[in-house]
Amino acid sequence: MKLRLFRRKPPSRITFDEYGGSTASTWGAGFGWLHDVSSAAWIGPRLHPFGQDIGSVIPGGFGAYARLFHPVEVDGSRRERWSDVAARTGRIVHPEMQFHMIAAPRGQTRSVDYNRRNQPRMGTLHLGHRRILVDHLRKATTTPDRCWFAMWEGFGGLNDGGVRERVQLPSRNYLLYSGTIDRALETPMDPFPFDQSPNLWWPEDRAWFVATEIDFDSTFVGGDDGLIAELVSDARLEALPITLSAKADSAADRVNSALNARQKDGPVVDPTTGPE
């Protein structure tokens, strides 16, 4: 999970004609992008400097925060939890864990590109998890019928329909759209079979905020203590409480990094269970 100044674009949709030829097509032109982006003006001043920590992607000011781990896509046919991967490899589950660390067996070091086929999707929250999240968030706002959504402008094939205005945040620009909370379940790529969640969304009353940074394999939610406690305790999700000062780069998983180092001063300590 590392913030980058550059981002590879997913391929545009390819359309084949009756003669076998192909052309790149676009998506999202009629999704309802807004010219007026003033509703997002409050976000930037509440972000930490770009690339610093979790507070770089989700604004401060909320009572608590949670990290939702995107499910691991296994060979395109099934999904599993990060905790299942960690149990299999002998790793420790904690809020700052990084997938490339828990995917490598204990005592081994792998690159951040380890096992590229079997890993969480980056930059989008799985539709099934969005449905569960919406159920929680609907009850936690007084304005579920008026919400705002932002999508990164750089996705391959994304058509802005001629809308020039952007939500401008550090190193990231977004197209803005609005609607009821259920628009979080829509994707501008429909019917293209690559579901894309909004990257940022929040209600008019700003009771909570959801952020799925394009280069992260997790989604972050800010809200009051009750909402975050509900998300963490919902067994249908895999979520842990986290602070804005938690690190977000590929070297952030110091707990599991320590398992690879020789312990001169005693055993490795799992912060959740104590000494081994």
Work out the radius of gyration: 19 Å
Widest sheet, order of strands: 8-9-7-10-11-12-3-13
Low-confidence stretches: 1-24, 262-269
Helix content: 10-25%
Listing every helix as H and every strand as E from the N terminus to the C terminus, the arrangement reads EEEEEHHEHEEEEEEHEHEE
Query: How far do the termini sit from each other?
Result: 27 Å
Largest sheet: 8 strands, antiparallel
Q: Number of DSSP strands?
A: 15
**Count of spatially separate domains:** 2
Instruction: Report the sheet-strand fraction.
Output: 15-25%
Mean pLDDT over the residues: 85
The general outline is globular
Distinct helical segment count: 5
Structural class: alpha+beta
Features:
single chain; 276 residues; alpha+beta; 2 domains; eight-stranded antiparallel beta sheet; three-stranded antiparallel beta sheet; 15 strands
